[in-house]
Amino acid sequence: MSTFKDFSFAGKKALIRVDFNVPLNDAFEITDDNRMRATVPTISKILKDGGSVILMSHLGRPKDGPTNKFSLKHIVAHLSKLLGVDVQFANDCIGAEAVDKAAALKAGQVLLLENLRFYKEEEKGDTAFAEKLAKLGDVYVNDAFGTAHRAHASTAIIAQFFSKENRTFGLVMEGEVVSAEKVLHDAQKPFTAIIGGAKVSDKILIIENLLDRATDIIIGGGMAYTFFKAQGGKIGNSIHEDDRMPLALEILAKAKAKGVNIHLPIDNIIADKFSNDANTKNCASGEIPDGWEGLDAGIESRAQFAKVILASKTILWNGPMGVFEMANFQAGTKAIADAVAEATQKGAFSLVGGGDSVAAVNQFGYNDKVSYVSTGGGAMLEYFEGKTLPGIAAIKG
Ligand code: AMP
Question: Which of 241, 270, 288, 323 to mutate to test the pocket of ligand 1 (most atoms within 8 A of CB)?
Fold first, then answer.
C-alpha cells in the first residue's frame, strides 16, 4: 500500500470520505470546526497535485431521510473559506445532480455531496449504494478515522470498487493508523499504558489486550475502586461495579502471570460529597471511611505514577485519573499530563486517545506536548481493544 504523499492526484477525481460531523447551533453556525480543519492538508495536497476533490460525509443522525437540520449545505461557506476555494454543493450524494457535477469538475475544484446518512443504505453498508458513490471518483481516499470502526457504505464497503493502487488513507487517517500501530505493534519498552475513567466495564477489553503488550499498566480514576473493593479494601461511597470484582481479580492474576506491573493509586483525594466545594482530604487506598468517596489520585500516587511514566519509552493514555471536570479533583490527571509531556520531551513516544483524556490534555493546553492526540474516540478505543477496524482493513485489502 502506498502512502498518501506518494500518490499523485494529477488529473484525478479524488472521492474523499471525510468526517464533517461538526456541531451546529440553532442558526446553523459551526461551533467547533476542528474536524474540518484537520482534513484541509489532505484536500490541499490533492488540489496542489492538479486533482479535483469530491467530499462525502455524514452529519448528525438523521432518521427519516433529507432534513434541513442535517444538511451539509450549512457548512459550504465555511469550508470554502478554510480551503480558499469556492466549494460546489450537490443536493444529493447520488443521482443525476451528483453525477453531473462530479463529471464536470476541473482540476483544483471541490464538490461537497449532501449528507450520506439521508440514505439508510449508508449505515447498512449497502453494496449497490456504495457502488453508486464509487462511480463519482477515480481514486478513493478515506480520511474519516472517527468512523473507521463502522462497516458503512462510504467508510468500508466502497473500497472494493477501487483497485489497491487507487485507494488510500488521507493524512488524518494515516496519522492515526501510524501512531496506533507504533504503540500496539512496535512499542519500544518500557511501555506504560495509563488507563483511567469511570468504569472497569468500559475498559476491560483494552486492559486485556494491553496485558500482552505493556510492561506497566497504571489503573486510575473511578475504575480503581472496583479493584480495591475486590481485594477487600474499604472504599466508602466511591464509584465501583460489584459485578466486575471477579474480573478485577482476574486481571491482577493475569498481569502477575505475564509479568506486567499493575500500578493502582496508593492514596486518593477523598470528598464528603460529589461536588467541587466538598470537604476533602488525602487518604490511603483501601481505607476510605463511610460517607466519603475517592475523586482523584492522591499525592503519593501522583509521584509514583510520574516515576513510572518518566522511565517509559512508549506511553498510551486513555481516561482521566479523577473527576478532572471539577477544579479540586484535577491534580491527579494534571500530574499525569505533566509526566507524559516530560517523558515525551525526553524522547518517549506518547499517544493520548479516547474521549476524556483527550479533553483533559486539551483543557490543560498540552496537546502539542505529547506525540499524538487521537481524534477518533470510539474508533481508537476499538483499535486499542485489538479489533480490526473495517475502514482500515478495507483500504489495506
Ligand atoms: P471515561 O469516559 O470512561 O474515560 O470516564 C471519564 C469520566 O470518569 C470523567 O467524566 C470523570 O469525571 C469520571 N471519573 C474519573 N474518576 C472518577 C471517580 N473517582 N469517581 C467518579 N467519576 C470519576
Answer: 323
As a CATH number, domain 4-173 is 3.40.50.1260
Nearest alpha carbon, ligand 1 atom 10: 323
pLDDT at 28 (0 to 100): 95
pLDDT of residue 397: 85
45 catalytic per annotation = no
pTM for this prediction: 0.90
* Ligand 1 mean position, distance from CA 235 (Å): 16
Of the residues 60, 108, 233, 378, only one is catalytic, namely 378
DSSP one-letter string for 296-349: EE-HHHHHHHHHHHHT-SEEEEES-SS-TTSGGG-HHHHHHHHHHHHHHHTT-E
Say which of 73, 182, 199, 254 is annotated catalytic. 199
What architecture does CATH give domain 187-384?
3-Layer(aba) Sandwich (3.40)
Task: Based on the residue annotation, tell me whether 150 is a catalytic residue of this protein.
Answer: no
DSSP for residue 84: T
Report the C-alpha dihedral over residues 340, 342, 348, 349, rounded to 10 degrees. 50
